[in-house]
Design a protein that fits this description.
The complex is a heterodimer. By secondary structure, chain A is mainly α. Chain A is 66% helix and 2% strand. Chain A has a two-stranded antiparallel sheet with strand order 1-2. By secondary structure, chain B is mostly loops. Helix content of chain B is 0%, strand content 0%. Classes of the chains: A mainly alpha, B little secondary structure.
């Protein structure tokens, strides 16, 4: 929530003058996150888990939709097309196929949920690709990525807790969550060793 | 425990 809120905040027209909108954010990753949250939270109206759960689902969908709108429409001029080039079809197709093959239940909602779990684990790739292409990440982008990466990393602790105390585990969510966290690891390394020391992340050219 | 009826995580 902090990471997504940061992104909306930094892209919000009231908060910053248009030219200050942070560059270096991958619109493609933001679209993948929007698809992820919509596909996963379709049960928003049918399954009530808790006020917190529903509130966060609404927030995730609304904030990522707002980010996509602000980035690709309102501030289209500052969107960096040249560096945001990772082909998302190569991420979406395998996740869709895998969701059809490996799932808990062959029903539309469950397959969409599974697709969303797989997609989330690779949704950050366009962003990491863009950072490697631009060779650097703005500090605010680094904070956003750190928050986003630690979100799923913390879930791993929760899954361990639930395994030992509730004797419950969801292998699909766990495997995808571990893959997703691993994808952030090299970024976490850069974040800890550089950004937290006040330096900017500049990748070797 | 059995099969999970619906997903209670984000």
């Amino acid at each position: 929530a902090a990471g997504i809120g940061l992104l909306v905040g930094m892209n919000c027209p009231k908060a910053v003058k248009p030219r200050d909108v942070i560059t270096g954010i991958s619109g493609r990753s933001q679209i993948l996150f929007l698809v992820t949250y919509v596909a996963r939270y379709l049960d928003l109206l049918t399954n009530f888990v808790s006020v917190y759960n529903t509130a966060m689902k609404v927030f995730f969908i609304a904030a990522s939709a707002a980010t996509v709108y602000l980035m690709l429409f309102k501030f289209k001029a500052t969107y960096d097309h040249n560096h945001d080039t990772l082909r998302v079809e190569f991420l979406i197709a395998p996740c869709a196929l895998l969701a059809l093959v490996v799932n808990h239940d062959f029903t539309p909602l469950e397959i969409l949920w599974t697709f969303s779990i797989y997609l989330e684990s690779v949704a950050i790739l366009p962003q990491l690709f863009m950072v490697s292409k631009t060779g650097e990440a703005e500090t605010i982008t680094s904070h956003y990525l750190f928050a986003l990466g630690s979100y799923r990393a913390l879930y791993i602790l929760n899954w361990i807790y639930r395994y030992y105390f509730d004797n419950f585990f969801d292998l699909i969510a766990i495997v995808a969550g571990v893959v997703q966290t691993v994808l952030y690891c090299d970024f976490f390394y850069l974040y800890i060793t550089k950004v937290l020391k006040g330096k900017k992340i500049v990748l070797p050219a | 425990e059995g099969e999970q009826l619906f997903h209670d995580e984000l």
